[in-house]
Amino acid sequence: MKPTPDQKPTPPARPRRQHMRAADREQAIIEEAVRFFAEHGFEGQTRELAKRMGITHSAIYRYIPSKEALIERVYEHVYLSRWKADWAPLVTDRSKPLEARLTQFYLEYVEQVFDYHWVRIFAFSGLKSFDITSRYLMIVRDQIILPACAELRAELKLPAPGEIPVSEREAELFWGLHGRIFYLAIRRYVYGTTTPEDLDPIVRDAVRAFRAGVAPVLKDILAQAGS
Question: Is 22 helix (H, G, I), strand (E, B) or coil?
Fold first, then answer.
């Protein structure tokens, strides 16, 4: 995968000072690993990462015991740190219409994840079968997709999931919305194609179109499930 024209790879870092606190050195390794894996994928060798940082290869393993552990730290740094704890409560806050809740969530989500390093590491992880992608999507499913399914049913006065369980087909309605928005990031940071500079109206349009058209489809799904 090539970098986009407007988001070029970070040039090799200058050699760092040799005398750093252990916590600072570890953090420096993780931050440089984020840039390194975003550019080269997970096939990139830690020897090259060390060379790029101006440290010995063994120095990396004094702070982080293995490449797998380094990838785990990258996951925590890039993905878990950007997931907001108030997103799940937002989706289930019935003081607002569901369209407003989803719009607010995706506007905030775009601010957090539309990032060169975030998107490319996500894509590389999926290609190499690392579990970063699957673990992260489990969070999205459990905290956003499935609760949103229940909230849409409540808004439409349809049977709750306790009466008719949420099916894969029903969940895919919301995955379709999620994928539509995230595909803008793939186009921008993976394919290198032009995307709108201002994404706010694009997000609003996507959620509005989804909410306007989803009701009859969901009703058909539940009617078939209940028959």
Answer: helix
Among the listed residues 163, 165, 143, 140, the one whose alpha carbon sits nearest the alpha carbon of residue 92: 143
* CA-closest candidate to residue 26, choices 55, 53, 57, 63: 63
Q: What is the DSSP letter of 37?
A: H
> Within 13 Å, how many C-alpha atoms sit on residue 208's CB side?
6
Give the whole-angstrom CA distance, residue 204 versus residue 23: 42
The token pair at 64 is 């982080």
Q: What CA–CA distance (Å, rounded) separates 32 from 173? A: 38
Q: How many CA atoms lie less than 13 Å away from 117 in the CB half-sphere?
A: 16
129-144 pLDDT, tens digit each: 667 888 899 999 999 9
136, 79 contact by CB (below 8 A): yes
DSSP state of 93: -
Label residue 110 by pLDDT band (50, 70, 90).
very high
> What does the alpha-carbon distance between residue 122 and residue 186 come to, in Å, rounded to a whole number?
10
Main-chain dihedrals φ then ψ at residue 72, nearest 5 degrees: -65, -40
| Tokens coding 10 | 């970070």
Q: Measure the CA–CA gap between 118 and 5, rounded to whole angstroms.
A: 17
Q: What is the pLDDT of residues 141-178, one digit of tens each?
A: 999 999 999 999 999 999 999 999 999 999 999 999 99
Please provide the distance, in angstroms rounded to a whole number, between the alpha carbons at the two ends of the chain.
47
> Average per-residue pLDDT in the chain?
90
Tokens of 66: 């293995």
